[in-house]
Specification:
Layout (H helix, E strand, L loop, with lengths): L1 H20 L5 H27 L1
């Protein structure tokens, strides 16, 4: 899990940079990636909390 996360974030940063350089044309794509990353971090935090509780 740790390896996939460390490789996931730089690739996302590159995609985010590409979205910003292409401006509003890819704004919907930017929204898509933001929700994807938010969901990723929420599930990650949820799993960590669940592990601490049990």
């Amino acid at each position: 899990m740790v390896e996939s996360r460390s490789s996931f974030i730089p690739s996302f940063a590159l995609q985010l940079y590409g979205v910003f350089s292409n401006s509003s044309r890819d704004f919907s794509l930017f929204i898509y990636y933001v929700t994807k990353v938010l969901a990723f971090f929420i599930t990650d935090a949820y799993n960590r909390i669940k592990k601490e509780v049990y």
